[in-house]
Structures are given as structure tokens and as C-alpha cells.
Design goal:
Layout lengths: L12 H15 L5 E7 L7 H21 L3 E7 L15 H5 L19 H15 L5 E4 H6 L4 H9 L1 H8 L5 H6 L3 E3 L12 E5 L4 E5 L6 E5 L5 E3 L1 H12 L3 E5 L3 H14 L5 E5 L2 E2 L16 H7 L2 H9 L6 E2 L4 H18 L6 H5 L13 H10 L5 H11 L9 H18 L10 H16 L6 H14 L5 H13 L7 H8 L1 H16 L3
Parallel strand pairs: 1-2, 1-9, 2-3, 9-10, 11-12
Antiparallel strand pairs: 4-8, 5-6, 6-7
Helix pairs in contact: 1-2, 2-12, 6-9, 7-10, 9-10, 12-13, 15-17, 16-17, 18-19, 18-22, 19-21
């Protein structure tokens, strides 16, 4: 790929981040940039995993376009960490409880499908990333430690043991301060990842000397070869130093950890990577999302109600601003994505989120109908399946089929699922006020006078004029009446577009039903 330095001026955060990486490599040239994202495999991949890998991927691609240089993305699994507690969502909890403290790759797989619990979760991570088409290199901490990839860096850390300790000690309480070492030896008899003070650190002899507090027995453990690992902040720094990581992003909750790991990386003689801090997600009430509380939205739930491109759209927008992540944000994210896809097809503008989602261009025909419109159609017809929606779609957009517009076909299925789970249980019609009733009777007469082939714009203009003719303080109140009285919900799409999709005759029936219902007719 040829370099395009003009992309430095693009006002889009992936290019702004890529420029920082480009400056880093200009100062210390190397053949390729290394991007990294980390993963703790004691749990399963989740919506945050998708966000971090997607965002890092967009920066990596922007870097390649800007500089013409190759870049790699490593998905690094901290699978040598000791298991601290038994997860809630796994079988054979009693078996796992017997292995607490051991490395995840040294614990049997509770699912019985892989060589270890760590291997099982690593496989799930890779399947997860592959499902979304991410380009990455998978890296296992166990493989890197045991394979010698970190040996030289571990010995350097041993040489500078006290300097590393001086970085961390001020952040610890008195009790932990007395025992802290950046090294965690693997117990030669139990396999537990030990958190104990070092009696001696001998880099020249490749040796750690420590005392087992349970037995009082003194042990000598090799520093290299996977016989020990580093504490997590030191481990992060070790990885940056050993691999030469150029870029890694992390959540706001890790700001202090980034500072400490960066300081340790410098102690080792390395340069910390370019960093990017993203904000955390909030729930519907504005509270921080917690896996233990279960107050978040899972990726499986999002993908039940919308395509993955819409999740990418949500992740792209304002990553440094806290955003609420709950079911109501899904329809807007879908329609924002569809609008950006249309713009991308017309002009491959690098400020467009769809440019990054589709790596520059897309031949996807998208959808001639918004997701909000499909949701309202599903609501009005009480859709039990997407086929009923297609009866209206074909009349509205002749020639459009599930084969010609696969995105629309997916959206129809998602709309039915969303309607069943969220719209139908809360659907509640209200009676119109006297003023609203007069406006609805006016709407009825206008609809009856419209030509059968009236388009969405003509209908929308007529609906606007009706609102102006009646004494609404704000036209939003008029449209609110249409949604609440006719559709039984608080919000809706452009009403003219809905009428064009649902049909003038069908909409006349909705108005007649609403007026008859209010009048107490059968």
C-alpha cells in the first residue's frame, strides 16, 4: 500500500491516533508497527472485547494507509495468570475450585473439550474474533513464557529488580509493600502461581530464591523458561519491552496501571507504546457496567436485534465519551450505520465511520428502508415473522428481494425479534385529546384525497400542513400524537415514510380504528 501523508489532516480519531504511531516509527524506524490488544481468559469474550479489537484495527488500518508501512495486531491472552475465583458461567465448579491459584493453562477444562481451561477460553476468543473477520495474530502468555520469548526481558527485570520495586511500592499498602516482587514463581510441587517475597534475585545465575509460607521450605526457581511470570503491571511492561509494542489502548479504569507499566518499561530500557484511553460503558441508569452485576448488554443480545456493523458504528462514535449501552441505543446505531453506508457508496470519505468499518469501501446495497421504519411496521402488523414485512417491502420498493438486499433481509429478522421482546410488551395506545381528534379527522380526509402513488415526501408535507393548521404549540406534539394514538408507542419514524411503506389505505384504517376506539365504537 502506498503512503498517503495527506491523511494526517483527516479529522477522524483513528487517523489522529495513527499519526502518533507514525511519529513514533519516524523517530525509531522499524520494518513494521506492532499493535496489541490484551485479553484475560478467565472469562469468555464480551462486547468490550469486540470494541477494543475493532477500535485497534481501525487505527492499524489508518496507519497503513497513512504511511504505506505494514502493521501487525497481536491479540495477547494472559493465560498464565492464576485462577483467582471460579466463574459463575461454567460447569464442574467443584473441580475448578480444587485448582485455584494455578495458571489457566494448567487447569483441566471444565467443558471437557480442550487440554486446559485456558486453551478452551483461548479457542473461544479466536472463534469470536474470526466470526467478525478481524485480522490478528494470536499470542499465548504460556507459550511466550515457556518458549523463551520473554527470557531476555525477564533477566533484565531481574537485574533491575529493586528499581522496578521502587516504581510499584508507593502504590501498595504496608503489608503488601513488605512482600512485593514483580516475579511470581510457579510452585514446583503444586503448580500455584505464588505471590511471595524474594529472598534472593540472582540474574547471573538465572535464579529466584523464595520461601513457601505454608511449609517453610526454601525453593530455587529459574527466572527463564516459563518457571515464573511477572506480576500484572510488570507483566504488561515486560511485554511492551520484549515485543516492541507500538500501540495499545485501554479503558479509563486502567489509567493508573498504564502509568506504572510505562514507568517499568522505561526502567527496563524500553519506550512505552502510544496509548489511547477509552471511556467505559454505562447502563440505562448511568451506572458503570459490571459483569458481576449483569447490568450490561451482551454481544449475543446485540446481535439478536441488529447486525454487527451497527455494533461497530456504536463503538466507533466518540470512544472517549462515556456512553450508555442498553437496548434502546440499538435502533439508532443501526440507522446511523445505514446512513453512513449510503454516504460511503457515494464518496469514500475517511471521516465517515463506514469507511473504517468496511476498510475504505463497500458494495453492500444497504437498505432502502430504515430500521426504525421496519420496527414500526412490525409493531403495526404485530409481526410474527419477517415474511409479513416483505409483503409491504415489495410494494414499497419493487424489485427489492432478500437476495438482492441481504442487509435488509437481516434487518427484517432483527426487527421482528426487537418488536417481540421490547415493543409488544410496552405497546399502549392512548386516546386523543379534542384538539388531536380534530387533527386526526383532518388527516383522515387528506389521506383519502391523496393519489395511491403518493410518495413519502408528498405525504410528509401534507402531515406537516395538518399540524400547522391546528393549534399545536410544537409540531413535535402533533407527531407525538400520531405515534402514541395510532402506533401505541412514544416515538416513531418520519410519518410520511411510514405511510408510504404501510400504504395509504392501511393508514386510513389505523386512523379510523383510533377514532372509533376513542368514541367507544365496536
Amino acid at each position: 500500500m502506498s503512503a498517503d501523508p495527506t491523511l494526517r489532516t483527516v479529522k477522524a480519531w483513528p487517523f489522529e491516533e495513527a499519526a502518533k504511531v507514525a511519529d513514533r516509527l519516524a523517530a525509531a524506524p522499524k520494518p513494521a508497527a506492532l499493535f496489541e490488544t490484551g485479553y484475560g481468559p478467565s472469562g469468555l469474550p464480551h462486547i468490550g472485547t469486540f470494541g477494543e479489537v475493532a477500535r485497534t484495527t481501525w487505527v492499524r488500518r489508518a496507519f497503513e494507509r497513512m504511511t504505506g508501512l505494514p502493521a501487525r495486531l497481536i491479540a495477547f491472552s494472559d493465560d498464565m495468570d492464576g485462577l483467582r475465583k471460579v466463574p459463575d458461567n461454567v460447569p464442574n465448579k467443584e473441580m475448578l475450585a480444587q485448582h485455584l491459584g494455578k495458571s489457566l493453562t494448567a487447569i483441566p477444562d471444565p467443558f471437557g473439550t480442550h487440554s486446559s481451561f485456558g486453551a478452551h477460553n483461548n479457542a473461544r476468543l479466536q472463534a469470536f474474533l474470526d466470526e467478525f473477520g478481524f485480522q490478528y495474530e494470536f499470542a499465548s502468555a504460556t507459550d511466550y513464557y515457556k518458549g523463551g520469548r520473554f527470557d531476555a526481558a525477564l533477566l533484565r527485570m531481574a537485574e533491575r529488580h529493586e528499581e522496578v520495586r521502587r516504581v510499584i511500592l508507593p502504590t501498595l499498602g504496608p503489608e503488601r509493600r513488605a512482600t512485593y516482587s514483580p516475579f511470581l514463581p510457579i510452585h514446583p510441587e503444586t503448580g500455584v502461581v505464588m505471590q511471595v517475597p524474594m529472598e534472593e534475585v540472582r540474574p547471573a545465575g538465572d535464579l529466584l530464591v523464595w520461601l513457601d509460607p505454608a511449609t517453610g521450605k526454601r525453593h530455587g526457581t529459574r527466572i527463564t523458561g516459563g518457571h515464573c511470570k511477572a506480576q500484572w503491571k510488570a507483566d504488561w511492561a515486560l511485554r511492551w519491552y520484549a515485543l516492541g509494542v507500538d500501540y495499545e489502548m485501554s479503558g479509563k479504569d486502567l489509567i493508573d496501571s498504564v502509568k506504572l507499566s510505562s514507568a517499568i518499561c522505561r526502567v527496563l530500557g524500553g519506550t512505552p507504546p502510544v496509548g489511547f484511553t477509552y471511556e467505559l460503558f454505562l447502563d440505562e441508569q448511568g451506572q458503570k457496567i459490571s459483569k458481576s452485576k449483569g447490568n450490561g448488554l451482551t454481544i449475543e443480545e446485540w446481535l439478536r436485534y441488529a447486525p454487527p456493523e451497527s455494533l461497530a458504528q456504536f463503538m466507533y462514535a466518540a470512544p472517549q465519551r462515556a456512553k450508555r449501552l442498553f437496548f434502546d441505543v440499538i435502533p439508532r446505531a443501526v440507522d446511523e450505520y445505514l446512513a453512513n453506508l449510503e454516504k460511503l457508496k457515494a464518496q469514500p470519505e475517511p471521516t465517515n465511520p463506514a469507511f473504517h468499518i468496511h476498510n475504505g469501501s463497500s458494495n453492500d446495497p444497504g437498505s432502502p428502508i430504515s430500521f426504525a421504519m421496519l420496527l414500526n411496521l412490525a409493531s403495526v402488523v404485530n409481526a410474527e415473522g419477517p415474511e409479513i414485512l416483505w409483503g409491504f417491502i415489495r410494494r414499497y420498493a419493487p424489485g427489492v428481494t432478500p437476495d438482492s438486499h441481504p442487509m435488509l433481509a437481516r434487518l427484517a429478522e432483527h426487527a421482528v425479534s426487537y418488536y417481540r421482546d421490547f415493543v409488544a410488551p410496552t405497546k399502549q395506545y392512548r386516546a386523543p385529546s379534542a384538539m388531536e381528534r380534530a387533527a386526526l379527522e383532518d388527516l383522515l380526509q387528506v389521506l383519502r384525497s391523496l393519489p395511491a402513488d403518493a410518495d413519502a415526501e408528498m405525504i410528509q408535507n401534507q402531515v406537516f400542513e395538518i399540524g400547522k393548521r391546528h393549534a399545536f404549540a410544537n409540531l413535535r406534539d402533533w407527531f407525538g400524537c400520531l405515534y402514541q394514538v395510532l402506533l401505541g408507542q412514544q416515538e416513531g419514524p418520519r410519518f410520511g415514510g411510514f405511510v408510504a411503506l404501510y400504504g395509504i389505505a392501511g393508514t386510513i384504517g389505523l386512523v379510523e380504528t383510533a377514532l372509533a376506539r376513542e368514541a367507544g365504537a365496536a
